[in-house]
Structures are given as structure tokens and as C-alpha cells.
Amino acid sequence: MSPAAQGALVGLLGGLGALLVVSRLRARRIRLDDRLAPYLRAARTESALIADAPPVRGPLAALERLAAPLLLDAQRLVARLGSPATELRRRLQRAGRTETVEQFRAGQVVSGALGLAATLTVALALAASRPVSVLALVVLVGVGGVAGVLLRDWSLTRDVRRREQRIVAELPTVAELLALAVAAGEGPLGALERVVASAHGALAAELGLTLADVRSGVSLVPALDALAARTGVSSLARFAEGIAVAVERGTPLADVLRAQAQDVREHGRRELMESGGRKEVAMMVPVVFLILPVTVVFAAFTLWAG
Questions:
Q1: What is the value of pTM for the model shown?
Q2: Is 280 helix (H, G, I), strand (E, B) or coil?
Q3: Which ranges does the record mark as transmembrane (predicted)?
Q4: Distance of alpha carbon 122 from alpha carbon 65, whole angstroms
Q5: Which percentage of the chain shows pLDDT scores above 70?
């Protein structure tokens, strides 16, 4: 790297550092609300014996206190640029994760920081080995940070898709188990309890939440509607709607459950056939654009050599 480029890089880094210092000083300006808050604090409504434990003090406690405001600002920036909190909370529920929106945002910030660190290391190695444009290095570091943030979001989307696939795969078996329990004389609530106690998987966990809602005082039909809204799976929504209609109208529940299981199996078979058709079309791409041209080249070379 030329001396002029090195000077420009040092000046850029110094300017960014000064900009960060000024922005933090302006952000930490004491407002009127902050001055009045100690005098208007609400009275304690719970015992001090059950208050949260004080944070653990260690060798990195000071570093954590210094990095906390920066982490909060980064979370706000990611929340402003990313998806809304309501949609993100619903996606976390569909993925079966127990983390909150704030914890997921913090994970995105950490992932972006790791991406920045990795690309910054690569950029410094490139700058030390050969002359490279400073603008290209800055763009590379920025792309690395954005990729780290998006990687966390992509991981959540992948978990949602995989969990929905597991729910669809488990739905026929769970429907058959419910039908057997109802045919043996169990009621809808008793059949749910038996299946939740004996089955394992993503759908059994969702039925466990529905059963907990019913035990807390919610009737069965609204609990099934909440199950359909919480998962977002169309097959499960039709399944819950069928059970709700059967319970309200007095339709034989065992027949409805068997019909629902058969419908889910037929839907899965159709999706498998459609996926096979798409894979067959995708397999034509290497045949047409790779294998066929190579075959033609070999045939032409054989005719030319002969």
C-alpha cells in the first residue's frame, strides 16, 4: 500500500473514531426526565427478598459496563433496519425458540461484530500483501458486518421452515392417535392429554401448549384457534378448524380426525410429486449446459482427428 493510501486509511479511521466519540457524548447528555426520575420513582410493590440478584462482578465487569451502551445502540439500529418486533416475535414462536426479541437482536449484533472482525482481518491481510483500494477494503468490511447480521436472520428462517416441515410430517400420526383415543371412549380433552403424554416432537409440544391453555381456563375451540395462529402451518390450521367444528356441531370426532389424517397424507404426496417434478427440471440444467456440450465437443474432435 502506498504512503498516500496509508495516510488516507489512518485519517479515515481517526475521523470515524472522533465521530463515534462525539455521537456518544451527545447521546449521553442528561435530560430533564433523567434528572427528575430519582425523585419520582414509583414505590416498591414487591418484597426486597425476591429482588433480582446483583450482577456477578468479575475481571470483565468494567468492560461489560462500557460496552453495554454501544450494544444497546447497535440493537436499536438493527431493530430499525430489520423486521418489526411483532413479526420477529411470531417467527421465534414458529421456530420453537424460547429467546426474546431483545436476545435475538443482541445475537444479531454479536454476529455482525464477528463478521466485521473477520472481514477486517482479511482486509488488513490484503492491504499488507498487495496494493488494494481503500474504498474496496471499506466496502468489504461493511459487507461482512451486514452478512453477519443477515446470517442470524437466515438461520431463524431456516429453523422456522424445518420445524414446520416436522409438524406437517408428524400431523398424520398424531391425528391417527387422537382418532384411536376418541374411538376408545376418550373425550377431546382426554385424547389430547393422552397424546401429549405419549408422543414426542414439535407437534406434541404445540399440543402441550394448547392443553395448558385449556387447563388455564380457555375453552377448547379458542385454544385450537390459537394453535393454528401460533404455528402458521396451513395443514395444522385446517386440522384445528376441523376439530373445532366437530366439537361445536357434535360431528363424530373419530371420523373427522381420520379424514384429516388422510387429507394431510394426500397433501404431502402431492407436494412430494411437485418437488420431484421440480428436481427433474433442475437436473436438466447440467445435462443441457455441461454434459451435452462436452459430448458434442468430443464427437467433433473425434471426427476431426479421424
A1: 0.66
A2: helix
A3: 6-25, 109-128, 134-154, 281-305
A4: 29
A5: 87
In one-letter notation, the amino acid at residue 86 is T
Set of cell numbers at residue 267: 397433501
pLDDT digits (tens, 9 = 90+) for 150-166: 898 899 889 988 988 88
Could you identify the residue written with the cell 425523585?
Answer: 39
Mean of pLDDT values over 221-237:
82
Q: Cα separations (Å) of 208 from 113, 195, 212, 255?
A: 38, 9, 6, 23
DSSP 3-state percent helix, strand, coil across the chain (nearest 5): 85, 0, 15
Check residues 134 and 34 and name the one with the higher pLDDT.
134
- Are 116 and 145 in contact by the 8 Å Cβ rule? The answer is yes
- Grid cell digits, residue 29: 447528555
Q: Above 60 in pLDDT, residue 48?
A: no
For 46, list phi and psi in degrees, rounded to 5.
-135, 165
Does the structure show a pLDDT above 60 at 194? yes
Burial of 85 (0-12, 13-18, 19+ CB in 10 A): middle
Integer Cα distance of 137 and 24 in angstroms: 26
Cell of 172: 398424520
Q: How many CA atoms lie within 13 A of 166 on its CB side?
A: 17
* List of residues 6+ apart from 176 with CB closer than 8 A: 257, 258, 261
DSSP letter at 291? I
In the structure grid, which three cell numbers stand for residue 201, read together?
A: 416432537
Res 1: pLDDT: 62
Q: Tell me the three cell numbers of residue 46.
A: 414487591
Cell numbers found for residue 264? 394431510
Q: How many CB atoms lie within 10 A of CB 2?
A: 8
Q: Which amino acid is located at 260 in the chain?
A: Q
